[in-house]
Fold this sequence. Notes:
Layout: H1 2-62
Amino acid sequence: xxxxxxxxxxxxxxxxxxxxxxxxxxxxxxxxxxxxxxxxxxxxxxxxxxxxxxxxxxxxxxxxxxxxxx
Length: 70
């Protein structure tokens, strides 16, 4: 009986160590994904701003001033 309990305890400890390792790995992946997400958000924001600027320049170039304003 004592041998069985010892075996089961060893198995539980092994499983707990394995799960702890997996949690650490998943945490590292989540941290990296968070960093990537922030970088991508900044890039999208920057590109959106650039697109807005280009669109405004295009609109201004297509809207010529009436002759009496020149």
